[in-house]
Specification:
The chain contains seven helices and five strands. It is α/β, with parallel strands linked by helices. It has one domain: 3-Layer(aba) Sandwich (Oxidized Rhodanese, domain 1). The termini are far apart. 29% of the residues are buried. InterPro entries: GlpE_sulfurtransferase (IPR050229), Rhodanese-like_dom (IPR001763), Rhodanese-like_dom_sf (IPR036873).
Length: 138
């Protein structure tokens, strides 16, 4: 008890950082997270559609082949484009996984049931040795 009283600031920092770390594991905004390997299997086995939610400049710098680019900030406005894919698995991709998880939550709220976020985003995809395309989608 004496240690805690003498090091109150250190204890507060430790408790706060632990709580924040725990919150990232507990609170997922929506959708199921997939590893790059799981995403590849879903693409190959169930014809999953990949949607890159990064900004156009990020998308052009490198993206998963055949991905559609719909920036996260435009998901709500472009729901009609995605309606025809409502029953198909969707894999949302961003740079690190944060924006795609938020976009998954928006799609889930809109009634999409098969939405997934690529854990680690395009960074994890590249780190896994998987190919990317550069330039705009044709």
């Amino acid at each position: 008890m004496e240690f805690i009283q003498q090091n109150l600031l250190l204890v507060a920092i430790a408790v706060t950082s632990g709580a924040m770390l725990l919150a990232t594991f507990i609170r997922r905004p929506g959708g199921k997270g997939l590893s790059p390997t799981q995403a590849t299997l879903l693409i190959n086995r169930e014809d999953a559609l990949t949607i890159d939610v990064r900004e156009p400049a990020e998308f052009t710098a490198g993206h998963v082949a055949d991905s559609r680019n719909i920036p996260a900030g435009q998901i709500k406005d472009r729901l009609t484009e995605l309606e025809k894919f409502k029953e198909r698995p969707l894999i949302l991709i961003c740079q690190s996984g944060a924006r795609s998880a938020t976009a998954c939550a928006q799609l889930t709220k809109a009634g999409f049931t098969k939405v997934h976020s690529l854990d680690g985003g395009i960074d994890a995809w590249v780190q896994g040795g998987l190919p990317i395309r550069k330039g705009a989608r044709k």
